[in-house]
Amino acid sequence: MQQLGERVIEVSKTKIWIAVIGALVFVWLGYWLLRLDAAEIEQNRRLDSPVLVHGLGVVTMVFFGLCGVVGFCKLFSTKPGLVLNRDGLLLGAGGLVPWSEIDGFAVFAVNRQRSLVVRLSDPQKYVESGGAIKRVFNRMNYKLVGSPITLASNALAISFDELHALCIAYHQQYLEHAR
Question: Where are any strands of DSSP class E within the chain?
Fold first, then answer.
C-alpha cells in the first residue's frame, strides 16, 4: 500500500465570499424587520406583534452579523482549513486529533447539507476543550450528533465525498501505526 503523505486542504475563498454575502443579505433583512412600523406590522396580521418582529430583526442582525465577521476574517487567514497526516487530523482552529483517538466516521445530513462526524474514543476530552464559545458549540455538536467534532466541506476547497474518502483512507492507514 502506498504511504499517504501530508494532505493540506485549504479554505475555499469563493465559498467564504458567498457565505459573507449571504450573511450581509440577512443582516439587511434583519434591519428591514427592525425598521417596520408597528402599525404596519399589526395591519399585516402574519406576525402581528411588533415586539416579536423587531426582536427577530435584532436577533437576525446580530447572528448573521457575527457570521459575516467570522467569514470576513477567514478570507484573510493563512491557516489551512484541515490537514491530514500520519499523526492525525489537524483542525483549522481545533488542534490535532490523533488517529488513535478516532474510532471512525459517520455522515450527518440535514436537508442536503452533509457533515462528517468524527467518532471519538473519549468525546468528553474534546467537548471541554477550547474557549467558552468553542465549548458551547462542542456541547451542542455532541448532543446533536454524538461527537464534538464535525467536518463540513462547505468552507473547504474540496467536495464532501472527497473529504469523506480521504479521512477514511488516512484513518485506515495510520491507525495501526498510532496504536
Answer: 7-9, 82-84, 88-91, 95-98, 102-110, 113-120, 150-152
